[in-house]
Amino acid sequence: MSELIKELVLKNGSKIVLLVMDGLGGLPRETGGKTELETARTPNLDALAAEAECGLHLPIGYGITPGSAPGHFALFGYEPTEYPIGRGVVAAMGVGFPLRAGDVAARVNFATRDEEGRITDRRAGRIPTEKCAELCEVLSAVKIPGVELFMRPVKDYRAVVVFRGQGLSDQVEDTDPQATGVRPREPKATAKKGERTAEVAGEFVRQAGELLRDRHPANALLMRGFAELPSIPSMNELFGLSAVAMPVYPDYKGIARLLGMDVIDDLVSLEDQARALRDNWDRYDFFFVHHKYTDSRGEDGDFEAKVAEIEKVDAFLPSLTAMNPDVIVVTGDHSTPAVMKAHSSHPIPFLIRAERIRPDETREFGERACARGAWGVVPGKILIRLALSYAGRLAKFGA
Amino acid sequence: MSELIKELVLKNGSKIVLLVMDGLGGLPRETGGKTELETARTPNLDALAAEAECGLHLPIGYGITPGSAPGHFALFGYEPTEYPIGRGVVAAMGVGFPLRAGDVAARVNFATRDEEGRITDRRAGRIPTEKCAELCEVLSAVKIPGVELFMRPVKDYRAVVVFRGQGLSDQVEDTDPQATGVRPREPKATAKKGERTAEVAGEFVRQAGELLRDRHPANALLMRGFAELPSIPSMNELFGLSAVAMPVYPDYKGIARLLGMDVIDDLVSLEDQARALRDNWDRYDFFFVHHKYTDSRGEDGDFEAKVAEIEKVDAFLPSLTAMNPDVIVVTGDHSTPAVMKAHSSHPIPFLIRAERIRPDETREFGERACARGAWGVVPGKILIRLALSYAGRLAKFGA
Description:
2 copies of one chain form a homodimer.
Chain A: H1 2-8, E1 16-21, H2 36-39, H3 43-50, E2 53-58, H4 68-75, H5 87-94, E3 104-113, E4 119-121, H6 129-139, E5 147-155, E6 158-165, H7 195-211, E7 220-228, H8 235-239, E8 243-246, H9 250-258, E9 262-263, H10 270-280, E10 286-291, H11 293-300, H12 303-321, E11 327-331, E12 348-354, H13 367-371, E13 377-379, H14 383-390
Parallel strand pairs in A: 1-10, 1-11, 2-13, 8-9, 8-10
Antiparallel strand pairs in A: 2-12, 3-4, 3-6, 3-7, 5-6, 11-12
Helix pairs in contact in A: 5-9, 10-12, 11-12
């Protein structure tokens, strides 16, 4: 099917906006109650839903809880299971590190250890990003023969390390024990071809331990998600879209870069994103606007705060519709119900508004309303196809 | 996808109950009328539906009428077309015969023939099971060089034969002509590798004919569904579920054993099944409770009697909910509308109740109500994924 789409793609200068509220889908707090989205006062989203086709989507499949990367892959029209992306790569791309084929990246947490080497805090007291940057600088003194090493701060206590050299592979287990009171694990190869990388990572941890000895609370480090750069066709190759991403959070920049999108940096608020949209309107076909905090508040278990984030996005919406995009898609990459404090497998409401659609009877943007919408429950990756089609960007198939 | 699920499976001690009313789906007797399920007074099922996510499922695909085995395979999370199970294997497993790889099993009907060898009754006057057992004993005198032969009674006039030896294969046609007034067919190979088995079956029929000569009305036998044991991963391998089956009917025991489930024997009523559920509650993760007679009454064309069977299951339901399973799924393996006196391809209503679900607006358990439920029409095999997910037994996919 993806080969077929590629053949049918047309270019016509139309504009598509994808607005993602991360972790949008929710659950009621009590039986028969309303979800976060159903609770939120969202006059602008409701008005858009009334003019739109609505439904629910599943990014990966029935019963599968999506991580952020596969959830977004689906929204961008990719089959997520075809492109498993390791955390290390997402993190490196997120901070704009120019990964090369053969590089191995891993997420690093600065952590606290006691005198016996046991982890007492997996997040080093949540040191600020500036401190993290300073420590990355310190660790650039690590020298490993035959390997170039790059350390970059991500956010707070999180950083990313990239190893570059011959014969490296991502077949290495996490060193993060995911618990306190125990020592970090030794880097261990999961396959023969990971052995060299496990040695390199072991040497890195050893030297880092010495360099961080007096840096309490950040006197240790934990590694997760060893990953290599996968080969992924760009959105332009697949869909003929020149695409730009406007996320605030680094991880989503990483995902966007992986798919060949340009990324607008240094955005910190919805106002910034609105301005970036205006400033870049003439330069692209596809605009990815991402709001992280719906997911963050869901993960916190703070129902009311998640409602408030949805309402913020609703207030932002007019600055998006004011651009008169040919197609607007509003949805999430997965559900993060506040009652679960975690991602979940529940389908995610979406709306798609364009001139040539067949509006359904949905009059509000919410889980149950969208369940009665025109589309029912669909795979997440087809949303881009609807968008292309309603933007006049897909030719007829067959005579 | 099934490889993915396997990787994501977690174990957490949660309990999942699958309650199957065989042939549940139905049709109205007249245009605009109600189906069997819609007609039945089902206060307990309706209350459960109100707290559940509802929908319709298709075990195999649009327009395909499922047999019992593939219908159940789908419910247990298997793609039915990947595992075609011959009737002979189902029958042999059903009576607990320890089939081995390479064995060939076939269903046997005792039948009545006239002096010219023409079949006058394909069911031998529906002889009782005891008589069937006695005749199986008689037929154990059959001797075929190089082949071990096992006969086992199933129920009434039905039995199963198993051939064990070198070079056997299930590539043999039925001998049952599916009509009276004609002779049984000769066993015929459908492929070269079935030739030896066709010879063996021919010799078996010949010797059996002699041994049964004076056993009117059971003086002949018809063979159907030559089958070999397929290799199927167990529910434990695929889904990490230690599973137990509580059917009354032998065939469903066979299916359960094929998938590595333990089987509770000697259950004859819903009361027995309720007791078995209580007695085994601490020993398993997954409980398959099966009610056969909804299908039987549908096959009989007895609308009212099928309604009554559904009401019996409704009355049984409190003994199931009293166990407080983490997830309850109630559905059927296919439709058996009384007006058709046969299985049909119509989708089957289902409900799934768990703590962390998003209840829809379904307030009763019925075909039309479920069609408006949260899920629309889904493939049957995904129900197990929803159950695993809502039981907290599937990890997040991807970073």
